[in-house]
Amino acid sequence: MPRGSRTEVNAFERRRWLEQLEKGTGVTEIARSAGRDIRVVKRGLVIGQQEAEAAQARTDIVRNRLELHQDDLLDEIRRLRGIVGMWEPRTIKTDDPIKTRLQMALLEHIDRKPLKGLLNDYEQLAIEYRAVLASTEDQLESEESQLLSKFPKVIETHSWAKYIVEWLKERARYPDPLERDYILDPDPNNPGKCHVKYGTSLTLTRLPVGENQAALIVDAHKGLMGTAALRVSTLSDLYGRMKAMSEPAIFELDSLILRRMVPGRCNLCN
Asked: Domain residues for 53?
């Protein structure tokens, strides 16, 4: 069989012919230099162009997918940045399964970076911090219920536990704030009666009470504040350690945001 009549053309030859064509070599010259029938070369060039277009399309799809993946990772980084930068500690984990999977992917990307260790340590401290707060609030609500059950029925108070927890958060951030005094604020519409306040803004009573009843309320509230005060040292220590973790973590997160790219790979990149 004459050499020029061979019809089988492999992918390597097709790519080489395409390169020659792109450099300006004519089809006749390509066929002559390859020792092939011009019809074989033309058919090979058509197939080669189709293969090149398909390969470019696949490359574009992969590139677009990776760009969208990077956008997702950067969105997750911004979410983490918002949590770590908050004054009130929150846990990083989420109940959203998609965000959970994305967070796992991000941790795979930064597996060898200090940021992963900082985030893991922050999460453990935040979990412990919130657990202490939750158990304290439960204890305060239980003690408050027991105390108020002993009050005369004419005494009506606001719920104290949640406000004491807010005070506790403040003490964790600022270990030595100005202490508040108890104020008996006379009720102008009920002579001889008053509202009991803790500081100038927090009113403990719903309805005005007499002097003896006010004393009961102050003693009860002081008891609850004493329970909360026992947790100040623990929460303050946890808060301080979290802030120590958050500063370098924020620096690393901000660096990734400014770079607009998360290095490394995860199984979603494949």
From this structure: 3-64
Three-state secondary-structure class, residue 182: strand
What lies within 8 Å, CB to CB, of 6 at 6+ separation is: 36, 40
Residue 233: CB atoms within 10 A of its CB come to 12
Q: Give the chain's residues under pLDDT 70.
A: 1-6, 154, 176-178
Question: 53: which 2 tokens?
Answer: 């277009």
- Alpha carbon of residue 269 to chain centroid: 21
Output the pTM of the full model. Answer: 0.69
| Token representation of residue 174 | 């600022």
Domain count within the chain:
2
Judge whether 240 lies within some domain.
Answer: no
Final residue belonging to a domain, choices 43, 64, 85: 64
**Residue at which a domain ends, from 42, 64, 86:** 64
**How does pLDDT run across 160-218, given as a tens digit for each residue?**
888 889 888 888 888 766 678 899 999 888 888 999 998 887 888 888 888 888 998 89
Q: Is 246 inside any structural domain?
A: no
